[in-house]
Amino acid sequence: MPLAAPDVARLFTPGSQYDCGHDRTATVVALPEAVLALPTGRLVACDPVIGLVDENEPFLAVAPPGSYPVTLAVVEVRNAYGPGSSDTRIAAALLRVGDRPAVRWELALSEGQDEQRLGPGDFFGYGVDAGSGCFLDASAVGPIGELVEQDADPVVDAIHDAGPRPATVTDPASGHTMVAFTTGWGDGHYPTWVGRDADGQVTGFVSEFFVVPQPGRGPAEG
How far apart are CA 195 and CA 97, in angstroms? Predict the structure, then answer.
C-alpha cells in the first residue's frame, strides 16, 4: 500500500505528544495561522523557490473558491540534539476548507499521477531544496513565480525569519498571495493529503514533513 495518511486531528491538537525514538519526544505547542486567498479553488503546494518553475501543477481535488486559514502544527522536540536540548519545528501545514470534519485523508494527486502505481510506503509529493514549502492558488503561480525569480533572497529570508509561523508573500503588481513556511527538518520530499467529508467533499489539504511518527509507519525522519 502507498504511504499511510497521518492522524491529522492529533497533529493539530495542542498538547499531543509523540515518542520520536532516540530519547526524543515531541509536543504540539502552537497552531499559528494565516489566511490564503484561493480564487479558483485549485491549490498548488511546492517549494516556493524551485517548485514555482518545475512543479506547479495544481491538485485534481478542487475547493470552492474563497479564502481559507492555513494552520501550522508546531512541535517542540525535546532532546533534539542530545540530552537537555530542544528545538521547535513545523510538523505539518493544513489549509482548512469549511467546518465539516474529514472522514478520510487520501494522497492529493496532480495531473498524470496514479496512486495505483505506487509501491508500499511510496507517495507523490514535492521536493524541497530551500527548506521551505508553500500553498498558493493556481492563478498565483505565474505572478508569484516571477516575483521569486526576480529576487528570491527576500522571499526566502521572510520565510525563515518567520520561524515557526506562516509567512504571507504578496505580489505587489497583481495582489496574488502565497502562504509559505519552513518544512520540518529542512530539505526533502513531502506528501500532501486531501481530506474529504462523508459526502466526498473537500475539507482541506495538509502537507506533512515527517517530524513525528505516524501509525502504520516506521520511525519519523530527521
Answer: 9
Reported pTM: 0.95
Q: Any residues with CB less than 8 A from the CB of 120 and at least 6 apart, and which?
A: 1, 2
Residue in the block written with cell 533572497: 153
**Residue 58 grid coordinates:** 495544481
Query: In this structure, are residues 193 and 107 in contact, taking their beta carbons and an 8 Å threshold?
Result: yes
Task: Give residue-wise pLDDT tens across range 79-122.
Answer: 989 899 999 999 999 999 989 999 999 999 999 999 989 999 99
Residue 94 CB partners (closer than 8 Å, separation 6+): 8, 11, 12, 70, 71, 72, 73, 204, 205, 206
Phi then psi for residue 63, to 5 deg, are -95, 155
* DSSP alpha helix (H) spans, the chain: 8-11, 51-54, 141-150, 152-161
